[in-house]
Structure to design on (88 residues):
């Protein structure tokens, strides 16, 4: 009578052990996947920040150059009709 009970107990423990092991492996897999997605997201944000910074820098430089040309044009205008401005 004790043999069937022992077999049933071993079967029950094996089933619960297998379920616990499977759950642990699934949890680890999900954790690794979540970490990879997080790292990929951070890399994407860094690339977007880098591109945004470059675009802002280019826009600022373009405004600066346009202001210099405008300033140069104003300086080159003669103040009186007969005045000649020498440009280099």
């Amino acid at each position: 009578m004790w043999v069937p009970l022992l077999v049933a107990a071993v079967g029950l423990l094996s089933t619960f052990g297998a379920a616990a092991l499977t759950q642990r492996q699934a949890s680890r897999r999900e954790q690794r996947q979540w970490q990879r997605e997080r790292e990929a997201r951070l890399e994407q944000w860094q690339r977007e920040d880098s591109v945004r910074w470059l675009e802002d820098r280019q826009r600022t430089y373009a405004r600066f150059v346009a202001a210099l040309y405008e300033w140069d044009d104003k300086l080159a205008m003669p103040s009186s009709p007969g005045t000649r401005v020498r440009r280099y």
